[in-house]
Amino acid sequence: MRSILFLLGLCALASAKYKRYDGYKLVEIIPSDVRALHTLGAWNGETSLDFWEEPSSVGEPVHLFLSPESLEAVGSVFDYKVLSETIQQEIDEEQARLKSRVPTPYFEYDDFNDYETIMAEVYDLADRCPAGFTCATYAIGQSVEGEDLIVMHISKDGESRDAVWIDSTIHAREWLATATMMKILQNLIDNYGTDSSATDAMDKYDFYILPIVNPDGYKFTHSNERMWRKNRSVNPGSTCLGTDLNRNFDFEHGTSGTSTLPCSDTFHGAGPASEPEVKAQQDEMHRIMNSGQNIFAGISMHTYGRYWLMNYGHALSGTCVVSPDHDVQFELCTKMAQATMATHNTNWAYGPMCTTLYAASGNTIDYMYGDVGILYTYLPELRGSSFVVDPNQIQPSFEEIWAGLHELFTHE
Ligand SMILES: [Zn+2]
Predict the structure, then answer these.
(1) Is the bond preceding residue 105 a cis peptide, omega within 30 degrees?
(2) Residue 106: band (very low, low, confident or very high) from pLDDT cuts 50, 70, 90
(3) Domains of the chain
(4) What is the pLDDT of residues 158-182, one digit of tens each?
(5) CA of 245 to the centre of ligand 1 (A)
(6) Catalytic site residue from 53, 277, 381, 400
(7) What distance in Å separates the CA atoms of residue 284 and residue 287, rounded to the nearest whole number?
(8) Which domain of life is it from (predicted)?
(9) Which of 6, 22, 58, 329 is 20 to 30 A away from residue 186, measured at CA?
(10) What stretch of H or E contains 141?
(11) 85 is catalytic
């Protein structure tokens, strides 16, 4: 009896550690003029308010996830519409479902998985590498907390070819991006020889897959805070942890849509590529290119909002910078977005990040194109209306993103 009570006590302790969002609401605000837009933009950069859809332009919805106290303060300035009051309930259901899965660890492609289970599956996939290919896993560096940053390189024996780079989970809470990424990797490896689209892709390109850019953050969303976004680096002089890795790349760092304040979710870090997760990715992409292998395309996966975004994301002096290769990049972006939309009859926006969504400097795809010289770089913001997603969305998400990628793989 005593041991049962002890165990119950431990369980209570463990679950108490996981942050609760009781009473929180996901709300939508439509900035009606430039002044309102600037106010929201200032809050995004200067406060720890949790923006799920960041301010972009007048008339475009902004989503905020707010505690009762924050909602009272925000509601005194803006009219808002409540989109959801059930996020905590959905997290409870998600946790109950994940904890009830047996045996553990056990990778489930149609549900979400913790970090260790995902990495075990990545190594299992490497072991299932099709005959005639090599699936090499290797660390490109370590995270702030010392986790290896694992890339899988898929190559065809005896052939030197252009490569496609795909990464996901730079933002910790975007679990659907991770799950969609794993289905893409599985399709390439397990369906080679049976699925014609996967077979053609594998026969044409090398792949470099980095499923989890931000392991510390992803682990933290499972252990402590479901809504954590950044990495877990300590910021000297601040009690707030973490840098937004997708604002930390060393290309036009800090010019637009980023924050200098560590408590902001868009904090761009102490300096360009100050974060080891970013430095490792930059160095690896350069290493590949310097070895003589051309990276044909780079994809960086996010949720949510249904966008296919391309470079550039940054603005200079408040003006979006236009890519010198805009026309060819946009042509392929259009094909990818249309293929995605046709898959499940959904509506997606597409085009340069800065003009289509918002300005954000130091992001992955700007660096890939602007610094590494990868011509085709895209950032899908996947389906959904929250970071907590029903697992039945994973398969359609994979199908529509794969349809877009198929256009990329077959592009001449
Ligand atoms: Zn993201």
Answers:
(1) yes
(2) confident
(3) 18-85 (3.30.70.340), 108-224+250-409 (3.40.630.10)
(4) 999 999 999 999 999 999 999 999 9
(5) 10
(6) 381
(7) 5
(8) Eukaryota
(9) 329
(10) strand 133-142
(11) no
